[in-house]
Amino acid sequence: MYQGLPVIDADAHKLENPLVMRDYIEPEYRDRIGLVIDSLGDQRARIIDFNPATGKNDLMRMFPQPQGMGKGGFRNLHPDTTLGAMFNRIRIEHMDREGIDVHVIYGTLNLIFSSILDKDLAIALCRAYNSYMADDCRGYDNRLKPIGVIPLQDVDAAVAEIHRCVNELGMISVAVAPNMPIPHPKAPEAFPEIRSCKTISHPDFRPILQAAVDLNIGLGIHGGPGSYMVGGISDYTETFVLTHIFVQRNQQQLALARMVFDGAFEQFPTLRVGFLEGGCGWVPDLAHAFHEHWEKRIRDFDPKHPYRPSLMEFTKLMIQERGTHNNVNLISQAKNLFDLLWNTQHDPTKIDDVSLYEHYDLRHRDPLEYFERGQIFTSFESDDPGPAYLHIAMGETGKHLACFSGDYGHWDGVLQNCVHDAATVADYDREHLELLLGGNALALYGDRLRQTLPNHLLAQTTNLTN
Amino acid sequence: MLLFLTTLAIFFEIGAYAVKYFQEAKAHFVASHQHPINQFLHHLTNIVAIAAVIFLFYDWRLTIVCLVLTQIFALGGHAFFEKNEPAFVKYPGITILASMQWSFENWFGVRQVLQYFQHKALSD
Q1: Which of A8, A86, A185, A236 is in Cβ range 3.0-4.6 Å of A438 for a Cys bridge?
Q2: Which part of the chain is the Amidohydrolase-related domain (chain A) (predicted)?
Q3: Inter-chain residue contact A320 with B112, CB threshold 8 Å
Q4: Is residue A149 domain-shared with residue A237, that is, in the same domain?
């Protein structure tokens, strides 16, 4: 609690204990995952993956990607939180000290599962991770809420795993990757170094979104550096500093934009999605871009009647600019140019091509409505000033978007005074602060979290839940 | 002296404005007369207009006939060929000067015909 307000960390992390997790992996897959030390002396997951070149499971991959553009981190262990992220006894001590009531816990290794090529291995790892985390977090007065992970490589298996996570393992939700890498159509042989992606809003993944709605869970989208997922600008930077500046927010921005414009929020109007660990300060800018492009290129867009100035006006301006001498040639030149710019060979009113009507099925709804009706959430970390200006840019909606996250367990997280710093980074009123520290996380994760809160928090959150 | 300089400056200012206005009107005139038949009719209009002035010294009734013909040629060119509004609607008063200068520049259409054939020969 912080000054009587419930505190829910919406995106804490587990550092999987490899010794324990190994026991949960089906024996036939155990030898295909292990730890190695890279040339810089850092720990990497070593995964023997399917090799498209040989057709066999003989592709040795290291995660996070140790070198090259978009590479993952190194020297990643946080001195304050590494042990707590592995051992819950320490985690609980830290939570008590900082005044955090609940940790919603995402994984670390599992953030790369969507990049595994062998779908059977991916399924096995997801099942193992979920079983491990459910056991690992059981007890502790219901203060630890593990989030499951699902294999995007097999949608049917993913849906089954969502149901297992929620109904059998008692998890409050599952995490999905912001995108799944797929071969780039122009260079399929260079995959996964050169890649395209399918985001979670792709039609193939709609059963996953349907399952989230059916089970009333708030999906957590979580990316990561060095994962071979498409990472936007980070795919073109060769230092980890630059990669890490862009990777999380670019992955989330792509996922959010595609969710909106692929019509996922339209198809599932009660779907709630958290776009996590990418910050929130960029949301007003992106939301405005959504609105502007919807307004100008979807709602008001009329491809059959493109702008066409009058030839006379065009010629007059040409004459004024070039002079009235030799105006016979000038008129001829102006007319030729005019016909080139405003094509006379193809009458726009007679061209009927579906590609001219991008996202036409969304013309009836401003994307800002998806924010207003509580379908979109983001997270912020303790020293992030972003939440202080969301409501200035987006009005009351801006108060209901950002969930507190300490990023516990990762190198860039903050433990010491994390709640205090988050609460004092700006002069929040109490109602606003209540939303940021816990209310928005409750809105995101919904009844699955609400109904499993520690008893002492139930009364405290009544006003937030109604 | 000061009064003289001020008057001179005002004249320059007015002159510069008039030149600019005329250039705009001329550009508008040229741009709004692109159809060859309309161009021909306007050159004809200008010839008849000159004739109207000359006839004033001989028989005013011929002047009236000429003035009527100018309107038939000019308005007909816009209505049936160019299909736009006459230039004098936008630049009343000065359009006649722009029109005359245009006709003289183009030798009442002869130069345009020559340029057309020159251009065609180059294109071929």
Answers
A1: A8
A2: 116-292
A3: no
A4: yes
**pLDDT value for A462:** 67
Tell me, what CATH number does A203's domain have?
3.20.20.140
Taking residues B94-109, report their average pLDDT. 93
Average pLDDT over residues A194-214: 97
The CA distance from B13 to A274, in Å, is: 67
Residues A253 and A385 both lie in one domain: yes
Which residues span the domain enclosing A345? 311-350
Note whether residue A218 is domain-resident: yes
Is B34 within 8 Å of A319 when comparing Cβ atoms? no
User: What DSSP string runs through A148-165?
Assistant: EE--TT-HHHHHHHHHII
Say whether both A85 and A202 belong to one domain.
yes
Q: How many domains does chain A have?
A: 2
Asked if residue A102 lies in contact with residue A8, where contact means CB atoms within 8 angstroms, the answer is yes
> Lowest-pLDDT range, A145-149, A197-201, A453-457, B40-44?
A453-457
Q: Are residues A192 and A337 in the same domain?
A: no
Interchain CB distance below 8 Å, A316 and B116: no
Determine, yes or no, domain membership for A66: no
- Does residue A306 belong to any structural domain of this protein? no
A320 interaction partners in chain B (CB closer than 8 Å): 23-24, 27
Which chain B residue lies closest to A312 (C-alpha atoms)? B31
Environment class of A435 (CB within 10 Å of its CB; exposed 0-12, middle 13-18, buried 19+)? buried
Select from B87, B111, B75, B103 the least CA-distant residue to B31.
Answer: B87
Q: Are A216 and A172 in a shared domain?
A: yes
H/E element, A278: none
Interface mutation vs chain A, best among B34, B35, B95, B110, most A CBs within 10 Å: B34
Range in A78-92, A280-294, A327-341, A405-419 the model is least confident about: A327-341
Q: Among A30-39, A214-223, A433-442, which stretch is predicted with the lowest mean pLDDT?
A: A30-39
